[in-house]
Amino acid sequence: MAFAVSAAAQPKEKHHMELVTVQLQLSDEQAWALAQLLKRLGFGDCRGLAQDDNEAWLMMVAAERLRQALAEAGVAPR
After folding, report:
1. Is 12 left (phi over 0), alpha (psi -120 to 50) or beta?
2. Spatial separation of the C-alpha atoms in residues 23 and 21, rounded to whole Å
3. Neighbour tally for 60: CB within 10 Å
4. Phi and psi for 12 in degrees, rounded to 5?
5. What value does the mean pLDDT take over residues 27-52?
6. Is residue 20 left, alpha or beta, with left meaning phi > 0 and alpha meaning psi from -120 to 50?
7. Distance (Å, rounded) from C-alpha 12 to C-alpha 61?
8. Would the pLDDT of 69 be above 50?
9. Are 9 and 61 in contact, with CB atoms under 8 Å apart?
């Protein structure tokens, strides 16, 4: 399975960020597991790994864009 993701930070950007395109090939099993992770990921999880709230929100925005890309590729757990 292959898909491309374009992402840019939105919450409280400190400076202009360029868009980054990521191409990734995953097995069906890996894609499904990643989609499950992204479905279950919450702000608290990201906040525990982030330096501050803003970085946690940036993580959440990026994770949601990745989840959407997986769903568009047909990998969307309920």
Report:
1. left
2. 7
3. 18
4. 40, 60
5. 97
6. beta
7. 12
8. yes
9. yes
